[in-house]
Write a structure and sequence with these properties.
With about 240 residues, the chain is α/β, with parallel strands linked by helices. The chain folds into two domains: about 70 residues, membrane protein fhac (Ubiquitin-like (UB roll)), CATH 3.10.20; about 130 residues, 3-Layer(aba) Sandwich (Rossmann fold). About 30% of the residues lie in helices and about 25% in strands. The strands form two sheets. The chain has a nine-stranded mixed β-sheet. A three-stranded mixed β-sheet has the order 1-3-2, covered by helices on one side. The radius of gyration is 30 Å and the shape is elongated. About 20% of the residues are buried. The mean pLDDT is about 85.
């Protein structure tokens, strides 16, 4: 019984594919010129190259074409500081990984733990003295677990970033402490002041506060606390005299 030309053509394709597949599996992976000879890793601070190398499998000598980029990306993302990873296969024998780092904008203190947070208010990782040496990040302090539950972390961070932008580098914030809503305290590192704000009025009160500290009335330079909860009003507390 003769096969039609369509069936014969299809059978030929199937046989050719099977032969090619067998040849590929047996011969192609061993091509010397496609074996990886260099693995380059580029990272942003505070990531370290060594951190990512520990997460990768043995790659030297592997066939560059057969290495799964998705698998390498998945491994790198296990590091909490990695935001994204790009994998570049530079034929014939070089592999490059480029890792983007998350950016910590503050620390969060809760239940005695210090945690880095990003600009979305999301946790990155536990604080480490070796991670960002020399940095002076402000700390969002939740004094109780209940306080942490009633405040929205993203809203708190937006307040902190807004305050930082308005106050500038000359008046760095050391801590922001959410208390019973809608109130929160702000501790300045320079000048050393404790400020009390309401989340409902803090933006409107900022120009008033900046004017107050820029052109202080008598003895305001010795102020210890300033209550800025009430619109267009500041209640100044002075340290007790000995």
């Amino acid at each position: 019984m003769k096969l039609g030309w369509r069936k014969s053509f299809f059978l030929t394709i199937v046989v050719a594919a099977a032969v090619a597949g067998a040849t590929y599996r047996r011969w192609f992976p061993d091509l010397e010129w496609l074996k990886i000879r260099e693995v380059s890793i580029e990272v942003q601070e505070p990531l370290k190259e060594a951190e990512l190398r520990k997460l990768l499998p043995a790659l030297l000598g592997k066939n560059l074409l057969l290495v799964s980029a998705d698998s390498l990306i998945e491994r790198c993302l296990k590091n909490p500081w990695v935001s994204s990873v790009a994998v570049k296969k530079e034929y014939p024998n070089r592999l490059t990984l480029i890792a983007q780092s998350k950016k910590a904008v503050a620390l969060k203190q809760e239940s005695g733990k210090l945690i880095y947070i990003d600009d979305k208010g999301e946790e990155i990782d536990r604080w480490s003295a070796s991670r960002l040496p020399g940095s002076d990040l402000p700390i969002v302090v939740y004094e109780t677990a209940e306080t942490a539950r009633v405040w929205n972390s993203k809203a708190v961070l937006d307040i902190l970033l807004g305050l930082q932008k308005a106050l500038g580098e000359k008046r760095p914030i050391s801590q922001l402490v959410p208390v019973e809503p809608p109130y929160f305290k702000v501790f300045l590192a320079k000048p050393k002041l404790e400020l009390l704000f309401s989340r409902h009025t803090w933006e409107a009160q900022l120009p008033f506060f900046l004017d107050l500290v820029s052109r202080p009335p008598r003895r305001i330079g010795q102020a210890h606390k300033i209550n800025l909860v009430f619109p267009k009003k500041a209640v100044v507390s002075l340290p007790l005299s000995n």
